[in-house]
Amino acid sequence: MADSAQAQKLVYLVTGGCGFLGEHVVRMLLQQEPRLRELRIFDLHLGPWLEELKTGPVQVTAIQGDVTQAHEVAAAVAGAHVVIHTAGLVDVFGRASPETIHEVNVQGTKNVIEACVQTGTQFLVYTSSMEVVGPNIKGHPFYRGNEDTPYEAVHRHPYPSSKARAEQLVLEANGRKVRGGLPLVTCALRPTGIYGEGHQIMRDIYYQGLRLGGRLFRAIPASVEHGRVYVGNVAWMHVLVARELQQRPALMGGQVYFCYDKSPYKSYEDFNMEFLGPCGLRLVGTRPLLPYWLLMFLAALNALLQWLLRPLLLYAPLLNPYTLAMANTTFTVSTNKAQRHFGYEPLFSWEESRTRTIRWMQAMDSSAQ
Ligand SMILES: NC(=O)c1ccc[n+]([C@@H]2O[C@H](COP(=O)([O-])OP(=O)(O)OC[C@H]3O[C@@H](n4cnc5c(N)ncnc54)[C@H](O)[C@@H]3O)[C@@H](O)[C@H]2O)c1
Ligand SMILES: CC(C)CCC[C@@H](C)[C@H]1CC[C@H]2[C@@H]3[C@H](O)C=C4C[C@@H](O)CC[C@]4(C)[C@H]3CC[C@]12C
């Protein structure tokens, strides 16, 4: 009993813990981190499912708060040994203003860093993104690259720009002295396109297909590969990196790691069909049904409509100039840096990841009917 009491001594804080990725990180920590004494979940919007977590041996503390409010962040961080910072505005559809995206993703991250320094939290894991690297505004492909692959990371869009700045702040903070004199140890994880249970975009595409009579129309060449990674493996990598960061600060502090698993390299649409197909949808066309110039015109028209309608309503379709360019630029990673640095191996095989995602979609479908 004494061993287990000694073992359960750590306090973790997960910002954005009620989000798509955040919820999986929370559940993975409760399953895979035996040293957890308290798990704090900080989010603007707390989920009702948190209540079910409060019956276990770990103290689960739900904190409704805003990362843009420094005092709220400091109060949540105080006393935590590890912070996993996933909170962010994931918006490439023009829903939020560039200022709001920057406020949440950059200033919010600054507030988390300063809270760690001021309150003495020594370990910070940041959920960055592949977009910190690319695709860049020139549409240069990134074909099975790794953390050391040279690539001209040039961004104009608010979201990737904010993620790049936030990641830079986190990495630069590595080594700063926190309250009590110990060094802050930070690292950043760069997931590619995350899929799995709770993925809102996949849900939106599914319902779009249902509205079109069970059909989706190919818009992206099958040859354009887009890296994808299962949410359970991304969550597992967060848990593992947070644990190993405490053991190997000299090696891992200030490092970035792409999140990867055995998910196959496919175009964004073909990959989605791995899950949408078993749910009854069909992808029409072996090549894009519309020429690229017409898709660009439609994307630009969507952007214009969004701007014109903004005073009345939010019009934010999937197709806009940025998402079209992104979807049409190959971006895949092939790396083993996480395996070399902290022994990461995917927890879920491709088959398991696919099956779990399909089951989620089928359950979503049956509840919608
Ligand atoms: N979804 C992907 O494909 C993907 C890929 C790479 C990286 N990421 C990164 O992973 C993280 C989580 O992404 P996600 O897909 O789970 O998004 P999500 O929108 O589902 O989750 C984000 C969470 O952050 C919370 N949040 C937003 N603004 C906040 C604020 N001001 N204060 C406190 N909480 C706030 C939201 O309420 C939400 O619960 C983000 O940092 C994102 O950039 C996502
Ligand atoms: C209408 C089509 C032409 C485009 C539809 C697909 C489009 C919505 C998809 C394609 C690529 C997707 C992004 C990619 O998976 C990676 C990321 C990085 C991550 O940090 C946030 C999500 C994001 C931007 C995906 C959003 C949806 C995209 C653009």
Brief rundown of the structure:
This protein is of the alpha/beta class. The chain is 42% helix and 16% strand. Helix 3 packs across helix 4 and helix 4 packs parallel to helix 5.
List keywords for this structure.
13 helices; 16% strand; Rossmann fold; 369 residues; globular; 7-stranded parallel sheet; two-stranded parallel ribbon; binds nicotinamide-adenine-dinucleotide; alpha/beta; binds 7alpha-hydroxycholesterol; single chain
Low-pLDDT windows of residues: none
Strand order across the largest sheet: 3-2-1-4-5-7-11
Shape, principal axes of CA atoms? globular
Helix/strand/pairing category:
alpha/beta
Quote the average pLDDT. 95
CATH architecture label name of the domain at 10-201 and 227-264 and 332-349: 3-Layer(aba) Sandwich
Per CATH, what is the topology of the domain at 10-201 and 227-264 and 332-349?
Rossmann fold
**Sheet of most strands:** 7 strands, parallel
**Bound ligand species:** nicotinamide-adenine-dinucleotide, 7alpha-hydroxycholesterol
| N-end to C-end Cα span | 49 Å
Give the count of helical stretches.
13
Question: How many strands in all?
Answer: 13
- According to CATH, the homologous superfamily of the domain at 10-201 and 227-264 and 332-349 is NAD(P)-binding Rossmann-like Domain
